[in-house]
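Appendix B, example 12.
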Amino acid sequence: MIIHDCLQRSPEWYAARCAIPTASRFSSLLTPKTLKPAKSNYAFELAYEKLTGLPAEDWPGNEDTERGIESEGLAKDAYEFLTGNTCSGIGFVTNDEATAGCSPDMLVGDDGLLEIKAPRGPKAVQLYCEYVLAGNAIPAEYHLQIQGQLMICEKKWCDLVIFHQGLEPKIIRVLPDQEIHRLLREQITVILSDRDKCVDIMRNR
């Protein structure tokens, strides 16, 4: 694990993540529900970044991401109060080979991560109820991101917090899934090979 000390969305952050697959996009490598190789244009995006040094898309976010940014401090305080754990911020992390990276919301002690999701109230209710009704199965839309963070950061667990100011915070402990990690590593190798083929075409043909 290599920690890059930078603020998210800073020039240093974009430089650290340029042209490598990141955990927030791992659903472009594997389909979240079936864990089969996903069909996507992600290799073209990574090739563009390698050729230009520019982000393929500076996504402005949506209401949920803006709410998450605004609520992160409150969610962190609530989590620390409820668990007694101490959290610390982090910029960007790559694996030792610098072939993949992620931006966890927080580190928790030496062993854990914190991932905060702060959707609108009804969505927060839906997420947690679906989690319980599915036999404590992590929502598919978050599972690959969290497993990717665990793999890259080499941590023993991640606490997913579903947070809304008007509701009781819900904390879900996620443990590493080595089979998912194996599949992700395979697809990281594939996507980087596809990226480099695209770069070769653009430069030499």
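The CA atoms of residues 147 and 177 lie 7 Å apart. The chain has a mean pLDDT of 91.
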